[in-house]
Amino acid sequence: MQWLERLFGKSKAEDVDVAATMAAAYQASSRGDYAKALDLWAPLAHAGVPRAQNNIGACFAEGLGVERDDALALKWLTLSADAGDPVGRRNLAALYFKGQDSLGQGIEADFDRAAELYRLAAEAGDGPAQDMLSWMLLEGETITLDPAEARRWALAAAEQGVAASMTRLGMIYHNALGVERDPAEAAAWWRKAAAAGDADGQAMLGAAHHLGAGVPRDPVQALALLLRAKANGSALADPFLPAARLFLNSTEIAEAEQRAAKPDVEAVA
User: Strands, E, within the chain: which ranges?
Assistant: First the structure.
């Protein structure tokens, strides 16, 4: 494969238009042609372009257009991260968070290193890294629990449209994690998350409508949201679904099912 020769230095990247090449590679990867994308990224990565190094590392990590290779993923993501690329830092953090071991190439989980890298990426404005750092700080299982810091990073990620952080903010206010309990604020964040398509946000907003917690009690809308959440893969909907159905007649259940099937269940509230 031509890109392998480029990757290991058998071709040069002189006179390459970096922006145009990256754009062409992005277009190729967007249509699933990772072989073409890798062919374009390879000379840039070898020449030291951090985002191209990240992209090649991510392909090795996920087996996209190439056999998965943890050692090469680690190599290229480390180069990208060391050069300061926030996406490279986030993807390298994911390697250390999960640990990888394919083909006997072990990368041991290192939660402290993962948190350090997520924080660097978060401080550089990377929304997904802010979200993940918030999760780690709130769970308190892999690094020290810090609800206030978790809320700060969740807010930063939510401002960038990261729906999972919107749901987490709802949980923070619902469970009074470093803040006063505020059902209305919780529901407001779940509404934003639900509108952004987050399944857990849909489930929690449905539960709020079922209980009348922070929003008016609305059994039909509750069931519609819970059905949408379950269809989108949220296990949080399961405990509420039987009770939500119990309070509705067959006509109301049919109405809820129709709402759930619409593209935006919140738009028909």
Answer: 100-102, 105-107
Say yes or no to pLDDT of 4 above 70. no
Angle at 234 between CA 251 and CA 161, to 5 degrees: 105
Per-residue pLDDT at 31: 97
Distances (CA, A) of 267 to 194, 217, 233, 246: 11, 17, 21, 24
Q: Tens of pLDDT along 221-262?
A: 999 999 999 999 999 999 999 999 998 999 999 999 999 998
Q: Which residue has the tokens 């309070």?
A: 247
Question: In whole angstroms, what is the distance from residue 250 CA to residue 252 CA?
Answer: 5
* Helix, strand counts (H, E) of the chain: 15, 2
CA dist., res. 220 & res. 65, Å (int)? 46
Other C-beta atoms lying within 10 Å of the C-beta of residue 50? 21
Amino acid identity of residue 57, one-letter, is G
**Integer angstrom CA distances of residue 109 from 61, 93, 115:** 15, 10, 11
Arithmetic mean of pLDDT, 146-152: 98
Whether 129 contacts 90, CB under 8 Å: yes
80-129 tens-digit pLDDT:
999 999 999 999 999 999 886 544 456 888 999 999 999 999 999 999 99
Separation of alpha carbons 111 and 228, rounded Å:
34
CA 232 from chain centre, in angstroms, equals 15
